[in-house]
Amino acid sequence: MAPTGVKKGILERLDSGEVVVGDGSFLITLEKRGYVKAGLWTPEVVVEHPDAVRQLHMEFLRAGANVMQTFTFSASEEKLESKWEDVNAAACDLAREVADKGDAVVAGGICQTAIYKHDRDEARVKRLFRLQLEVFAKKNVDFLIAEYFEIAEEAVWAVEVLKESGKPVAATMCIGPEGDKNDVTPGECAVKLVKAGASIVGVNCRFGPGVSLKTMKLMKEGLHAAGLKAHLMVQSLGFHTPDCGKGGFVDLPEYPFGLEPRTATRWDIQKYAREAYNLGVRYIGGCCGFEPYHIRAIAEELAPERGFLPPASEKHGSNWGSGLNMHTKPWIRARARREYWENLLPASGRPFCPSLSKPDF
To answer: Does 189 appear as a known binding residue?
Structure first.
């Protein structure tokens, strides 16, 4: 896993047609492991329990991710008060430490603010972004991500601030096919982000794989219609959420403590990776619910295009369950084929549960 030679930057990779695999869930996963408190969703764990964060970074790296995103979601001064600077610095150090163990680059990440919803003061909002950017600049992250924005205007402000660094900027919105909260369409959102200076645009979180890819298709069409070009990026939920409304999975009654029955299988994620690739997306990762084995599924599905398998595949039958060929029971050996897993309709084991829910909002 040690890097060989000088690492290529994110745009150098994407410009050459390389498939970039992002990492996965931190907040939801670390909450389950007992390190993050739901509701607050703030990442002080990077200071309080750095080994837990380091371990999760390592799992994603072994699974095939070649971007280590700083665990700085909701790590602004507004959310963490006096702790914010230490948290951002520690998150950068952890991401860099693990990235240097493989061929991975570090992305510094910011997200939407709470004050924007109540006071759309551009100067105040940009100040919060700029404070985090100053830490990222000191720590010399490789590129920057503005993620989880539900309103295009605030996302544009974030991109404008991050561009001040001179480093490449990616921007992803937590929207579905209906567009942002102000009814700006996905295509229009993509156009605004590119015009603001983003080199990579897409979606993350709030929606499952299928819905996220529908949104990506609309973004791609919007850019094409405007005569603009950008690299495409998708980091969906690791949950199936076809029944959620415009606000995404946060409005489902199962959020956040009852989502496990909705978890995507590794085979679902292989399908997601292939469909994303066929759509022209070259930066493919995950968000909430995306465990390391889901990232491994992306890396395995796209191994022919990448030219290698990740270290975590050494203990996995990467050819659609080929490890089952050694099983003593013939009916289990019969499952060692792509057709079986591609066509499986997995049961929930819950006889009285509905297949879909009604969003609370």
So the answer is: no
